[in-house]
Amino acid sequence: MRSSSRRGFKKAKGIIAIGNISYGVISVGFLSFGLLSFGCFGIGFAGFGAIALGLLLATGAISVGTFSFGAIS
Q: What is the pTM of this model?
């Protein structure tokens, strides 16, 4: 039986989601999907991370978006 307090791989889903993989309006995690996404891989309306894909705004080392800022954009 797994305990909910164990460390490791966590998925999060909700309005504000924080986890390894997160889905939400505001999401923070290694891989994040949402309107505002913060993480190593951010995908959403506004994405912020090392690799970011944003429909409107993307900020990161590698970024794709309408307005994108980064080394490769």
A: 0.76
